[in-house]
Write a structure and sequence with these properties.
This protein has 184 residues and is α/β, with parallel strands linked by helices. It is 41% helix and 19% strand. It has a single domain, classed as Rossmann fold, CATH 3.40.50. Bound molecules: magnesium ion (MG). This is Sulfopyruvate decarboxylase subunit beta.
Length: 184
């Protein structure tokens, strides 16, 4: 499975929750598959999906899911100790690990070689870290959202991209409707 197939599969699970989605193709794919006002599409700030989502989870009580990538987490490894040491039960970090920098042309990342992001997350002090295969993700993600324990999911999948349009919505509109969804 590739990332877009995973997003299609989990769309019904995350639809009613606050979602912060990684920059580039992940956001474009999620927008195309199931645009929701509860989705915050990052149009900049590579690496910060986990940080933005985590801050949001700390700031209010609703469940928050950050959809991040392996290349993105490798860009911002400092996020993992921060998350580990300030755990909040309403936060789920989903790292879609396709072993590549998908949005820039599928250049391989070290997560596809010797570096295990699940092992890194555990070493940083994160509890409830699970590496799952793409085909098994749905029920595991549902459980992570439903339980009151912060969970880090590293979903291993194939690299590959589909043709997908850019998001033409104004960033201010994305932010505004997301803030309204948070406040509801
Ligand atoms: Mg990747």
């Amino acid at each position: 499975m590739i990332r877009s197939e995973i997003l299609r599969e989990i769309a019904p699970i995350i639809r009613d929750h606050l979602v912060v989605c990684n920059i580039g193709l992940p956001s474009q794919e999620l927008h195309m598959i199931d645009d929701q006002p509860t989705n915050f599409y990052m149009l900049g700030t590579m690496g910060l999906s986990s940080s933005i989502g985590f801050g949001l989870a700390l700031a209010q009580d609703k469940p928050v899911i950050s959809i991040d990538g392996d290349g993105s987490v490798l860009t911002n490894l400092g996020t993992l100790p921060t998350i580990a040491n300030n755990a909040t039960g309403n936060y789920t970090l989903l790292i879609i690990d396709n072993g590549s920098y998908g949005s820039t042309g599928d250049q391989p990342t070290y997560a596809g070689r010797k570096t295990s992001l699940a092992a890194v997350a555990r070493a940083c002090g994160c509890d409830n870290v699970f590496e799952v295969q793409a085909k098994d993700l749905g029920p595991v993600l549902q459980e992570a959202i439903d339980n009151n324990e912060m969970t880090i999911l590293v979903c291993k999948c194939d690299s590959g991209n589909i043709k997908v349009p850019v998001i033409t919505m104004d960033p201010v509109v994305i932010r505004h409707r997301f803030m309204e969804a948070v406040a509801k």
